[in-house]
## 1
Amino acid sequence: MKPIYSFLLFVTLCFILQVNAFGQRTVVSGTVRDAVTKETLPNVSVFFKDTQIGTQTDVNGKYLLVSPNPQNEISFNYVGYRSVLKNTVPSATQELDIAMVPDSRVLDEVVVVGGKKTKYRNKDNPAVELIRQVIAHKDENRIKSYNTASFRQYEKMLFSLSNVSDKFKNKRMFKNYQFLFQEQDSTLIGGKNLLPIYIREQLADHYLSKDPEKNKTIIIGEKQVQFDSRYIDNKGMKSYFDRMYQDIDIYKNNISVISNEFLSPIADGAPNFYKFFITDTIKTQKPEIIELSFTPRNTGDMLFEGKIYVTNDRHYAVTGASFGVNKNINLNFVRALKIDLNFEQNDKGKYSLSKSSLLADFGIGKTKGIGFTGERSVTFKNYRYDTVLPDTIFQGKSSVVLADAAKKDDKFWENNRLDTISKNQLKIYSNIDTLQNLPSFKRTMKIVTLLFAGYQNLGPYEIGPVNTFYSFNNVEGLRLRFGGRTTPELSKRYYFENYLAYGIKDEKWKFFLSGTYSLNNKSIYAFPQQYVRASFQRDTKIPGQELQFVQEDNFLLSFKRGVNDMLLYNDFYRLDYVKEFENHFSYNLGFKKWSQTPAGGLSYLNTNNQLVNRLTTSEVSVQLRYAPNEKFYQGKIYRVPIADRYPVFNIRYTAGLKGVLGGEYNYHNLLGSIDKRFYLSQLGYSDVTVEGSYIAGKVPFPLLDIHRANQTYAYQLNSYNLMNFLEFVSDHYVSINIDHNFNGFFFNKMPLIKKLKLREVFSFKALYGGLRNENNPNFQTGLYQLPVYENGSQRTYALGNTPYMEGSIGVANIFKLLRVDLVKRFSYLNNPEVSEWGIRARVKFDF
C-alpha cells in the first residue's frame, strides 16, 4: 500500500507551454480559439509558411513553434474553418493568439442523408490500407533504425489538486494555505482553481547503439520538491510516478500508460481493434500530411482514440499524434487522458520525436468533485545519428546519475532547460517548503501517515503496523501485540525491528528482535543491497500458511474456515548475508537454527506412539536470484518489485546439519522457481509461476515440503485456496500457478454490464508430487506419524498419481477495489473436512 499511499497524496497537474528564445531562432506561441464561441481549438495545424516546420495545437488550443532560422509568416489550418496567415517577427520570441472563423461554405456542403447506416469494413477501406503501410514501415522510421543515436532530453513532471471550487478554497481550514492556490486554465479538466503540490525536472543525455545493442543514460541534473521524509517517501513517490508516466513510443505494439498496457494505433494488429478514417490532407507542405482519425471498435477496451498524422510518401512516417481514451473505457479513477506527440524532420529526411506530453486527470467522480491531475512533458534536442560513439560511453551501468546532478543551481537550470517554465510553476518549490513548516500541516500528515501506512513516526523509531496489534486464534485466544522499527533518522547503516506479543488463552509471551547492518553505506532497502542480518523470533505459526504482503497476525485474517486448531511454537535463530549486483543477480547465504513445538490439535508421535515435545534442526542455505531489468517501488524503508514481462529466476539449496547446535537430521533440499508476466495485448495478462523441489534424506513430516494452504476467506495468489493446512506433504514436487486478468475483454461487450466496469479473472493451479517410501511413516520406522483428526481420520496425506488441482473464475474491479472468485477443487475430494467449492475475496487497488 505504500506506493499507492504516495500516489493518492500526490498524483497531479499543471502545464504551460513556452520556450526560451536566444540567437536567431524564431519562436511563436499562443492560443487558437473559435472566433464565435471563444472556445479553444485542439489539433489545429500550424506551420511556418513554405517550410516543413509544423505542429498541432494541444487540447487547450495552445501551440509552440520554433525555427532555428528567421521566419516571416505562419499559417493556421483546421477543417471547417477559414485558413489564417499571419506575419511574424523574424528571429524573435513572440505570442500570437488566433481567432479562427468558421467557413460557412464548408458548412453549406454538409449533407445529411437518411437511411441505413453504412457498416464499417476493413476491406477496400483507404484508411486501413494507409495504416497498414504505416505498420509495414515502422522499423525504418524508428530511432532504432540508425546504427547509433544520441540526444538530450529534458523532462518536467507536474502534479496538482485540481477542480478546486472557490467554496473549497475559502474553507477555514485553508486560511493559512491561500498562497498555494493558482488559477486553472484547462478545458480538459475543468474547474477554476489548482493546488500545485509537486514538481520534478530532469536533464539527461541518451546514447543508443544498434549493433551491438546498447544504451546509456547519463543524468546531468535533477530537481524535485522534497517533502519531509518522516511523512512522505520521496523515493517511493518518484518510483510510482515513473511507473505510471513512462515514455510514449507510438511505434511499439503496446504502450504503457497509468500502469496499464494499451494497444498502439499502429500496432501490428491495430486494424482488428480500431476503426480508421481519413479526415484531412494538409497540402501546404512537402511531403503532404494525411490526418487519420481512429476510434476503438469497442469503447470499453484498453484502447486509444484520436488522430495521427503521417507522410503521404513512400516512408509513411508519423509526424504527430494527439489521442486520449473514450469516456466509456474500463479504466478506474481516470476522468481524462491526453497524449500529444510532436515530431520534427531531421537532416536525413526522417522524423524524430521532438516533444511528448502525457496528461491525466484522476477523481472518484467522473466529472464532479476534487481530483488529482498530472502531466509529464518531455522535450528532445540535439539529435545526432550514425556518428561514432566510443565504447567507453557504454561502460558501467546503463543509467548513471552524476554526483552533482541534484546540486545544480538555478542558473544552471535557466541556461539548460529545453522548455520554459512559468513563474507559477517555479513557485511550487518554495511554496511546499513554506507549507511543511506550518504546524497544522504537520499534524495532518501524522494522522494521514498512520491511516495509510499503518505506522506512527516518532523520529528515529516508528510504531506499527497497527493492524497487527489485535488478532485471535484457537490456541492463543485473544492476541495482543506491540512493536515497530527504526528509521534512517537513527542510522542509514543500522536497522532494528522488534515486537512483543501475548496470548490471553495460552498465557505465553512471544517476541521478535532483528538487527541489520548495511555494508555499502546505503539503506538496506536501496538497490543494490549488501547487508548482514541477525534475528531471533519466538512466536506461533500455522504449518503451511504463507501469506503475501500481510502479517500472519493481521486482524482480518483471524477469521478462518473449517477446523483450524494446529499451531507451532517456534524459536528461530537466523543469520543472513545478502549481496546484490548491478545486473540484478543476487545471492543470500544463511544459517538457521529452528526449534518447533506442536500445539493445539497438532502433535508429534513417533513410531512407538510416544509424544515428541520438541524438534530441532540446524541448516545452512544458499539462495541465488536473477531478475533481469527488474524495477522497484523504492521507498525509505521498503522495496516492492514491479511485476513486468521479464522473468525472475530463483534457486535455493538447503543442507540440514545433524549434531550442529542440537540439529537432529541431515538432509538436502533443492528448490527452484520461475516467475513471469505474459502480456497478451487486448486479452489482458497472465502471471505464471513454475516451481519444483526435491528433498534428499530421511526426515519426519515437519521437515518435508508442507504445501501452501489457505483457510482464510481472502484469496491468496500463491497458495491453494481450498487446501487445508497441513493436508499434503511431499519430498519432491513440481507445480504451476496461472493467474489471468482479461481486463474486461468480455464484459466490455455486454450491454448494461459494461457500465459496471467489471473485469474477468481466471486462475488454475496444479501440484504434482509425492513421498518416497523412506519418508513415509507407513513404510519406514523412525519417523513421526502423520497427523489425524480427533475422531481418528487421516488429516495429512502424501500426493498420489493424481495431481492436486484447483481453479477459479472471478469478477474483479467490483466497486473499483474488490475481486471475488468462485473457487473449484478438482481432486482429492474424499479427504475429510474438504470443501469442493468456495468463495474468496481480495482487495486490490488498480487502475
Note: The CA atoms of residues 75 and 85 lie 4 Å apart.
## 2
Amino acid sequence: MKKIFLTVVALLLTWGNAGLKAQETVTNAFDDLKRTGTVNEQDSEMRQAASNDALQELLAQKPAAGYFCFAEDRMHDIRLDQTIPARWTERAFDTWQQVEGDCQPGEFYTWQIGLFTPFKELKDVSVAFSDLVNADGNKIKSSSFQCFNQGGTDTNGQTFRKNVCIPKGHVQALWIGMDIPVSAKGVYKGKAFVKEGNAKPVEITIVLNVSGSPIANHGDNEGWRKTRLRWLNSTLGNSDDPTAPYTPVTLRKKTLSWLGGEVELSSSGLPCKIITCYDANNRLSDSVSNAVLAKEMVFIIETSDGQEALKPGSLHITNHNNASINWETTQKSRNFDVVCQGTFGFDGIGNIHLQVKPKRDVEIKDIRLEVPYTAYASKYMMGLGHKGGFRPDTLISWKWDTDKHQDKIWMGNVNAGLNLHFMDENFVRPLVNIYYALGKLNLPVSWGNNNRGGIHIQPEKDGETRMIAYSGERCLCKNEILHYDFDMQITPVKPIDLKLQATERFYHSNSDVSAGYIPAALKAGANLINVHHKKDIYPFINYPYYDESVTDLKRFISEAHSKDLGVRLYYTTRELTVKIPELWALRSLGGEVIHDGPGKDARTLIHRNGPNEWLNKNLATHFIPAWYNAFKEGKYAGDMDISVITTPDSRWNNYYLAGLDWMVKNLGVDGIYIDDSALDRKTLQRARRILNADGKRRLIDIHSWNHMNQWAGYANSLHLYTELFPYIDRTWIGEGFNADNTADFWLVEMSGIPFGLLSETLDARNPFRGMIFGMLPRLPWSGNPVPLWQLWDSFGMNKASMHGYWDENCPVKTDNANLPATVYTNGNKALLVIANWTDLPQKAKISIDEKALGFHPATISLPEIRNVQWSSRLNNLEQCEIMGRSGMIILLEK
C-alpha cells in the first residue's frame, strides 16, 4: 500500500522523507531514463526543439493546407506540443509526408502523423486511408486502419467518434494503428489522407515492409512496438451471461428474481417490494424472506398548487437476457410526463432513470424520492458523512456539497439492505483518495438543485424508516428536462464462503526484493502470494507487463506454481507509471486517459512543493502528479517510479482488461489485488469473465485507505466500492482504522459481512475482535496469522459454519453487550470467540442453546495459540471475566 498514512506526520515520515530525498535526485534519475527504456535515443532526439532560425525558415514555406503534416514512425514519439522537434526541420522536404516502417506478418503496426498549426486553429480534423498494395497486388485493406485520436470503442463496447481540434500554434500527434494480415509479405504502399472538415486533404505516403515469420499476439509481447495501443478498443469480457456464482435474472409478471432475492415493480416502474433470501449469517435459504421495503418507493412532484396526481401507464419490458432486464413506463399528470426507464442485473444492481418533462412553465415546491425501509433493513447505515455502524435514532439531515465525496447511502441489516447512489445524466466518476479535490463530484442538476437538495432519514416509526431524497424549490420551464437518476444495490451481494476464507491464505510482503517471498510463504503455510508494485519483479505501478521485468515476473510465477503457490498482482486503474511505452500516445489523446489537471501547479498531500521535476519538465501541463518512490535495493536500485492520475471510465479500462487477459495467458497470474481504484462495476464484471474464462478459480481482493478526512472528501472507504463487490472475493479495509472502533463499525465498514464478503484485519490488530468477524491478519503486512491458521486447521474451519453475535439465533450468547460472542460450529465441536470491546475488565454470563449448537459440550478448553492465549481447561461458562481489549477463544467438544 503505497499511499496510506495514519496521520499527516506519519505520511511525511514514511513518504515525505523518502520521497523528498528522492525528489532531489529526480533530474539525475529521470532526465535520461535510458537504462529502463522510457527515454531512448529517439526520444531524446524528439525532445530537442527546433531552433528559432530553423523554425522561421520552415514557416516561410507555408503549405497550401495552412498547416504542416509530418509523418513519423513509432520509435520517435511526438512529445512537444508547443513547437516542433529539430528532427523535423532537419528532414528533407520530400520526406515530411512519407512514413516507412518494418513489421512482421500478424503485427499491429503503429505510427504517427504530427500536425503543426502555426497559422490557424484547426477544427474537425480527420484521417482516412487507402488500401496498401504490394507488387503482387495483395492488399492490406483500409478497414484495418484506425486513428486512436478520432475515437474507438468505449467501455460499453459502443463505437464513438471524437472531434479533433487543434489550437493555433500547437502540435498534435495522431496515432495510427493497422492490423497486418498473417499472410502479408513484401513491400506495401498506400496513402493516408489528413483533412480539416471538407477541405482538400494532405496526402501521406505509407511504405511498409512486411517480412519474417508471423509474430505472436499481434506483437503485444514487446511493449516497445506499441501494438498494445489496440487494447484501448478491446471488447474482451463483454457478454450477456452472468458470472459465477450468479444465475440468470428472471422475470415473472412484474417480479424480477436474482440469486439473492426478488424485486417487484409497481406500475410507476419503481420497486414496491424487495426481499432477500439470506439467513442471519448470509447463507442462502429458501425458507428465508427478508423485506427491505416497508412500502413501495414513490416519486413525488409537488408544485405551488399541491402534489401532482401522476397517473401511471403500462409497464413495458424492453429487453430481457440472462444478464439483465430493462423496462419502461410513463406517468402523466396535467403538468408533467415522468418517464421511468430501469435496468436490473444478475448481480442485484439496478439503475433507474427518471425524466421529468414539464408541459408548461411550473413553479416547483419539491421533487423527491421517498424510500420506506423496514425497521429490520435499516438497523445499520453508512454514508452521507456517517461512519458505518448503527443508524442513529434521530433525524438525519444531509445537504449536497461537492467538497465532500458523498452521494450515496446504504441502510440495511446483515442479511438485507439497499444502497442508493444519486446522480444525473452528467455524472462523472470522481477521483478518490487524496486526489478528490482535483476531480470532484458534479453536482446533479436535478437532485442537487444548486445545493438546495438533500436527504432526510426519519427516525423509525411504525416499523418503517423513511429516506427522503429531495431537491427543493425551483422554476421549471416548458420542455426543460430534468434527470433524476439513481443506482440501487441490494445487499448482501452473494453468500459468504467461509471455506475459501479458511483455505486461501495470502503472503503479502513490503520488501522490494522478491527472493524471499516463496520460501517465506511456504514456511508459513500460505498458498497465495500478492506481488505489490515497486518490486524487483514488478517495478512500475499498474504496468506489470514492462518489457525488462516480464521475464523475471514470469520466472517467479512459474517457480511459485511449481510449489503449488498462486500469484496475484497489484493491478488497478487510477495511477499510471510514466515508464509506460505508450505514454506519449496516451498524452496525444488529451485528457481521455491521462487525467487533466493543474500540471506543474498541482499541490497534493504528497506533492506539497509541486510535482516531480521530471513531470514538470516533460509534461508541464494538464496532468495530476500521483505516486512516486525511489528504489533503494534490488535490480532497480537508484531508479525511480513516477506516475500520473488516469481518467475514470475511459478507454484505459479496455486497455486494462486486455492487459489482464494477456497476463492470464502469458504470465499465468492467479488473480489481482486492487488498491483504491477508478474501476467501475461494468469493467470489473468484464474482468471477472476474463479471469473465469478457462474455468480456473482466480481471486480479486480489494483494499482501501481511510477516506474519512478532508483530503478524500469524508467518504466511507468500503462504501466507495460497493458496486464492485459482486466480483470481489475478499476485502482488506482498515488502513488508518484502529482497533478501538465499535463493534458495529467493525461489522459494517471493516468485515464485509453485510455485503456477503469476508475480510482481513489491517491496522486494527486485535486477534479476538478480528475473529468475531472471521478476520485474521495478512501475512506479514498486518501481523502473523500462522498460529490462528493452525487453530483453524486443527478445528476444521473449512467445514465449519459461522454464527455471528448479530444473529438472534446464535447458539452461544453473553449477557454483556460489551462482550459479543461468535461461534463456529463443526459437527460435534465448536469454536467460541468472545471479545472485550472496552478498555476495562468485563464480566459476563455465557448461555448455550445446546439444541441450536447441536451437542452438549462435555469439554470446555482454551486451546493454546502462540502469542494470543495460553491453554487451559474450564469447568463451566456460567461466569467469565475478560480483561480490557482482550478476549477468549474457547473450544467446545461433545
Note: The CA atoms of residues 619 and 838 lie 53 Å apart.
## 3
Amino acid sequence: MKPPRATLFRTAAALATLALGAAAVPAVSQTARAATPATAEAAPAEAQWIDRATVVWRAEHTAETVEELSYADGGTLRLTPASLTDAQKAAYPHLAGRPAYRLDPRDRDKAATALRGPLTAVQRAAGDHDDVLHRTRVQIPGVLDDLYAGRARSARLGPVFHGARPTLSVWAPTARSVSLDLDGRTVAMRRDPGSGVWSVTGDPDWRDKPYRYRVEVWAPSVGKTVTNEVTDPYSTALTADSARSLVTDLADPRLAPAGWAALKKPKAVPLRDARIQELQIRDFSSADRTSAHPGQYLAFTDRDSDGMRHLGRLARSGTSYVHLLPAFDFGTVPERRSDQARPGCDLAALPADSDQQQKCVAETAAKDGFNWGYDPLHYTVPEGSYAGDPDGPARTREFRQMVQGLAHAGLRTVMDVVYNHTVAAGQDEKSVLDRIVPGYYQRLLDDGSLATSTCCPGTAPEHAMMGKLVVDSIVTWARQYKVDGFRFDLMGHHPKANILAVRKALDALTPAKDGVDGTSIILYGEGWNFGEVADDARFVQATQRNMAGTGIATFSDRARDAVRGGGPFDEDPRVQGFATGLFTDPNGSPAGGSPDEQRARLLHAQDLIKVGLSGNLADYAFTDSGGRRVKGSEVDYNGSPAGYAAAPGDALAYADAHDNETLYDALVYKLPAATSAADRARAQVLALATATLSQGPALSQAGTDLLRSKSLDRNSFDSGDWFNAIHWDCASGNGFGRGLPPAADNESKWPYAKPLLTNPAARPGCPEITGASAAYRDLLRIRTTEKAFSQGTAEGVQKALSFPLSGTGETPGVITMRLGGLVVVFNATPSRQSQTVPALAGSPYALHPIQAHGADATVRTSRYERATGTFTVPGRTVAVYAAGG
C-alpha cells in the first residue's frame, strides 16, 4: 500500500518550506490501495529528447568529447552542441539552463526507428570510441509529441462505431507490433506512420466482444522488449475486475434507461451559486435499511429511501449539485460482491473506545468492497463494484439511472476525476498506459524515476496525448452520461492550458448536436501548489493563483482553517479556531498559547473568514481587525495571500470534505470536553454557515448537516463501511463512538481520542441531529432566495458587502456582515452578544422570515433595537436580519 498523501506532504514540509507556506500543505490525505509498480531497478534516464532535433543533457561538451544517441543494433544518432531557443525554454522551463545538443540533420529520419528500442545517450572521449565518459538512458515524451501528436491529437481512439461496424484504435508509436486479441483470436492491426496510431475495422458481430491489445514494445523499466496484453485506455466498457475491454457502443439504445434521451435536468446553476454535497456512492446507502440497492448506483433510484428523501429535502432548500467521489473504474476493490471480504467481528458489540473495531476492519480492508477510489485504472468506464452486475456494460445503464435519479430529486451531478495519477505504472498488471507507451504517460523526474508526489505514479497531462486523454474522457462523461460538472483531484498537477482545453471542449457541446449544453457544466478542483511541478517549474499550473479569472474554481483552505482551527497535520488536534472556541471558550490545550496569543489569532481568523465571505477576492477592500484598510490579497495566510480570486466563483468555500476529520469530529477534538451536545450542534451549523453564506460556490461533505462522524478517523479512504457509512436515520446515531479510528493514520491521536469517544456530551441524539440539519437548510434557503448573496462581479461584491464593526474595537468571536439589505451576525462565542452598528440606527430590521418561522427556536430569540441599531444574537448562532422588518 502506498503511504497516504499526508505522509508524503509532511516529509516534504520537513525538508523545505514551499513558496505557498502552510497553504502548500493541502488538505488531501487520500491514497490508493495500489500495488507498487513492478519495475526493475532501471538505470537513470538523465537525457531528454525534447523534439526531433534537440536533446537536453547534463553532460557538458568539450573539445575532447563526442556525444551521440545509441539505439538498437549499433545504430547511432550524431549530436552537436547547441542552445535552446526561447520557445524551447518556455516549453521546458525546468531544463532551460542545461546543455543542449542538436541532432545531425542527416540522422533525423532514423528517429522513428530509434524510438522503438533501447536508447542511450553516450559521451565518449574524442578519438577513442571505447572510452565512454558518461552513459544514460533517454526520456522521450517530447520527441514523441513532436513527431506524432500533430496528427494523433485528432484521432478517435478506442472503439468507434460507424453504423454497425466498429473501428478499434490505440496510440502506440514506439510499439514494434500491435495486434488485437478479440474474444480469444488474434486480429492484425495497421500502423499509421504519421500519427503512431494502430487501428483495425471489424464486423458487426464484434459488438460487445471482449478484447485486449497485444503490444510488443521496449520496456525501459525491465530493460527488455516485452509483449504486453493490455486493456484499452479508451475503454467504454469492461468485464468484471477490468480483465478485458468490451467492443461497446455507448450510443447503443440497449444501454439507455427509459426516459434517458428526454431527461430534463434541474435548471443549471451558475458556479458562483453552486451549493454542493460531496458524496461517496457506497457511503450513501450501505447502512440505509430503506434502500433496495445498498452500496450501488441504483440506490439513487430508490425514491422513498431515507437517503433519497434527505437529498430531496436538501435540494428543495437550495443544494444544487451532488459531487460523487470517484466513480470511474478504479483498481483496488474486487468488483464481484461474492469476492468481497467482510469484517468477521461483532463490531457493534465492542466498546466505543476499543481498538478492536479498527483491527477487525483492517484485516479485510485489502479485499473488502470499500475504497474512496482515488486509484484510476480506466478513466472513462463506470466502476463495476457499484453495479448490480460488473461483468459487462450494465454498469453504463445503471450509472445513467443514477444520474436520472439525482435529476428527479432536483440535483445535478458532479464527478470527482483523478487524471493526475494512475493506480500503477511500469510492468505492473494494473498498469495500462505505461505498458502501451512506456515512459510517456507517466511524469518522470530529472533522473528518469517516476514522479509520485501525488501519492502514486503520476501522470503527465503536459504531454499532448495524456492531455488529449483528459479532454476526451471528460467530453465522453458529459455527452454520454450527462454529467453536469467535474472536480479535478490535485488540479495543480495539471497545466492550466490542459484545464482550459477541457473548458473549451465542453463549451463546444450543444443540446442539438450532443444532447447537452456544455456551457452549463461547472469545473472546479484542488489548486494546491507542491511537488515536482511547484511554482510553475514545468508549466503554468492550474493552481489557486493561476486559475483566478478563468471561471474554474479552486478549493480555498483559508477560511476552512480559520473556522476549524489549526491545520490538517497538527500534532495536537485540539488547536482551536473561530467556530471551535478559540479564546472565547478555551479547551486548555497548551497548543492554544496564552490568552493574548489566542485573542490575536482569533481576530486574524476573523479577517480570513471575512475574505472568505467575499469569495476570497484579491482586491476586496475592508478594515481588518487591526484597523488597517487592506485588500484580501494583503491578509496573510501562513505567508501567502488570503485573497486570490478575481471574481465570485473563482474560489470554492468549504468547512469539511472527505479529507481529514469530518467537521463534527474536528469539533469534538477542539471544543471543551464538557460542551453539551446541543452546543456542539450549534457550533456545527455556525461553521457551515461561513461557507454557505459566502459569495461564490460552497461545498460540504454529505451528512455534515446531520453531524456526521467517522469516529475521529482523519483518513478514511480504506476504513470500510463501519467508519464511513452515512446514517440517515438519527436513531442510528451519527457514526460517533464506533471505536478508535484505524491505527495507520490515527494512532498518534489515540491518547486524545480515547477519552472523547466515551464522552456522553459528544454523542448527539435525534434532537441535535435533526435540529442541526433543519437549521442548516434554513440558511440554505436564505442563501438561495436572497440575491445579494449572488454578486456577479468583484465590483458588485465591493459595493454590497461590508463589515461595519471591523477594526480595533471588533468583538472577538463575532463577525457582523452587512450585505445589501441584510445584516448577518456570526456569533461563535458561547454567550449572547450585542452588536451595535451606529450607521443603522433608526433603520428597520427584523430577523429574516425564514429564520423567524424556521426550525431553530434559539435563533428566534435574537433581537434588534431600532433606536440604536443593535443586533443581539444568542451564543453559537448565525442570525440573518432583513431590512424593512
Note: The longest helix spans residues 766-785.
